[in-house]
Amino acid sequence: MAEHTDDSYYTGIPSRRDQGERKPLPLVDPDAMKDPSGYLAPPGLVAAVNVALELGMPLLLTGEPGCGKSRLADSLAWELGFGDGKPLRFVVKSDTESRDLFYRFDTVGRFHAAQHEADRPDARRFVTYNALGKAILYAKGRRRIRAQGLAIMTEDQLAQIPLEGQRTVVLIDEIDKAPREIPNDILTEIEDLSFTVPELLHETPICLEDHEQGNRPVVVITSNSERELPEPFLRRCIYYHVELPPFRQDLKGDERNDGEVVTIERIVEGRLGVRFSANSPVLTDALALFRYLRMPERNLQRRPGLAELLNWLTFLASRRGEDGIRLAEHRDFRASVGTTLLKHRDDQLRAGDFIKAWQDATP
């Protein structure tokens, strides 16, 4: 049973802490682990990106959850310098329709406004432009939207569009969650880059003119491979399967001394190196345990991914004063393994056995 310590924010025992003893919660920066400047892409992925850019085709990435597929879009937008260096993201859901990539109309909100406002509400207030719709509008720019007479936005909405046209990166996340027919429909929409908003009684397609084609968005699509995608969809994409990078010790021959090879260790050093001392025993042991848990013979229901590793190491590094000890001596070691790395109940129940077996096999 875990004991609460001075580092605990929550004890579960009200008598242990009164109003005056509450520990301030830490400041958490949700974007810290997403910093694109620390993203490392393997050569195969780099080649796939460049092929997609050369051909102007969507890039489809598959791979297990947490392997860095979505983060590629951040890296791409940052390195290419498109817009503010961040992608326009659309997360696919089980009820997604192809038009949802472009916009959403709040029918209920408009109905309530019509019931309670004296004047007829401006329908444009109830339109929210989503990733692909925004990408087209950004490609046009505010000046051209006005010049083309596209009365599809309020002045407040229009003010969010850059004055001149610019390219963007569009991330369509988790396409495998969409209904079966949607992937093909989505690719048609991406190729045409054209849509209408019938709720505004605006029948003229909103699309890129010939002189605006240079601002076509770069599209990255991800899939967790939860189900097979349609063949026509696959044919119309550049495809790459993202594998978890190797550990340095698993490399062969000269690869171990090749500083360009992307490894788990290099990623961790780039993301969290400053949080651990040189040759940190905690970090060395943590990487060894992570590697041990990912081995096929462990038969986990769900193997921990790179995202879980980075989160776990961030937690371990936050416990100051414990970097110089071995991982097994870390006060939160066992609890954090079960809650951060193992995300299936059956795996959590076996956590103690995994840890013991790893310790027995570790010098």
CATH fold node name of the largest domain: Rossmann fold
Mean pLDDT: 87
Helix content: 25-40%
Structural class: alpha/beta
Q: What is the CATH class designation of the largest domain? A: Alpha Beta
Strand content: 5-15%
CATH homologous group name of the largest domain? P-loop containing nucleotide triphosphate hydrolases
Write the CATH architecture name of the largest domain. Answer: 3-Layer(aba) Sandwich
Unreliable sequence segments: none
What is the topology, as strand order, of the major beta sheet?
Answer: 2-5-8-1-9
| Structural domain tally | 2
How many strands?
Answer: 9
Largest sheet: 5 strands, parallel
The geometry reads as: globular
Structure description:
The mean pLDDT is 87. Helix 9 packs across helix 11 and helix 11 packs antiparallel against helix 12 (333-341). This protein has helices at 43-55, 69-80, 107-116, 131-140, 142-147, 155-158, 182-192, 231-235, 264-272, 281-294, 306-318, 333-341, 345-349, 351-361; strands spanning 59-62, 88-91, 103-105, 127-129, 169-173, 194-197, 202-207, 218-223, 238-241. Strands 2-5-8-1-9 form a 5-stranded parallel β-sheet, with helices on both faces. It has a two-stranded antiparallel sheet with strand order 3-4. Strands 6-7 form a two-stranded antiparallel sheet. Helix content is 36%, strand content 11%. The longest helix is centred in the last third of the chain and has 14 residues, at 281-294. By secondary structure, the chain is an alpha/beta fold. It is globular, with a radius of gyration of 25 Å. The two termini are 27 Å apart. The chain has 2 domains: 39-241, Rossmann fold, CATH 3.40.50.300; 246-361, no CATH class. It contains 14 helices and 9 strands.
